[in-house]
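Feature request, filed as a ticket because there's no other form

It would be nice if the structure record came with a short human-readable summary line next to the tokens. Right now we just get the raw output. Example of a typical job, pasted below so the devs can see what we mean:
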Amino acid sequence: MSSVVTHQPMERRVTVPFTGPVGGRGPATWGQTAIRRALRALEPDDHQFNVDWGGPVEPGLTVEAALEAVRGLMYVHDSLRTLMHETPEGTYTQELRTEGELEVRLVAADGTDTLAVAEALHRRLCGQRFDPARDWPFRVGLVTRGGLVRYAVMTLSHTAVDGWALPRLRADMTSLVAGADPGKLRAGRAMCGPLDEAAFQRGQAALRRDESARSFILGNLARTPAHLYGAPAAASARGPRYRSAVLRCPGLDGAVAATASRLGTTSSTVLLAAACSAAARSADRSDFAFQVMVSNRFVPGLADVVAPVALEGVLYLPDCRGPIEALTPRVWKASVNTYRFAYYDKDRLTEQLRGAPAADTTCWYNDRRGEAARVAGPAADDGGPGPEGGADAPGVPAPEGSLTWSVPSDRQGGVTLALHVIDAPGALDLSLTADTTLLAPGTMEELLRAMERSARGGR
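Raw output as currently delivered:
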């Protein structure tokens, strides 16, 4: 349950001047373009895909030190100093600035619950959309008590980062707070931002990777049915079209690790296999296709870059039936190429798909374990154990997970379902947003519980 602010805390705003070592203009990257088009389709509700970051600051930090760390982070990461512009032809360019000013909110929580103040600040910062052409893609709020920063609340535009960039940001912020030199943090990195990545994408190695990826995706889409679920039911005039459900699964992180060890595979493969099994069952079919988010950090040079590098790969599995022991090897084999072929120019793929037979690309899967801690939210990563942490007590049945419901915006870009796996304290959260004209709430719940059972090694 969220804490409650009993009185209005005092807030002031300070301006942090920043600089950067390089600047320039160039074409947007494949990832920037893909996420910018997705966000435009969701306007004015595109703020729902803002990226949250932050958490408690212990044992406390002076305001001056915190602001200096923010200034250093703006220097280290070019994406935080990058604006995006739309051309008359409908393409996108990026503009990297060498200087600017960032407004930081300071909120004093003296006499008030610190977490409650942080949650309220989070709702304000995250609940506003970014204008990618005018706004710095980084908002910062600092909650103080006794003159020291006790909580940091940060929100980023999805045009600047993806979830896999957060651990790099967190590590660099930790180093900066400890006194690291921003210039030395940048030194030695193959790429420091999306302008570097855009130059890389014009090279022959990246273009060959792009062509191979699009060829693989087109092949998988050719096998994907036009509709994974049946005809939509009539939408209720009284209820929302989309619903979100989060199933908290205590000990599932350890159970998945144990299943993976027993089967000689990875926890990611076990969770993806469980998702395929549960989704196919919910659609009353044997095959299934997911748009699987792929970090692409394994592409040479991209390991440390803070930018929207992740793109969706297409996973088509012709047979999702059987126990997890039989399904996992099939999923592993299919997913290896899905991950390998997920770095591409989505605009070119879209052009190639014009006139092609219809394929259902509305079901999404995203394993978000390992992202940096967030401030609030029912599906937030609370900084708990990592993907291999924790364990169920031997011989003791795991407690049935608690299910919470919420109502998101009806602007979801035509998604049928979006299934996420997220870290939670001593648990994993399975989060599902779905179109209730295709998946009734009861079907949504059964999908989540079936996925949990399968991931634990059951049926």
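Something like this underneath would help us a lot:
Residues 372-399 have pLDDT under 50 and may be disordered.
The longest helix spans residues 204-223.
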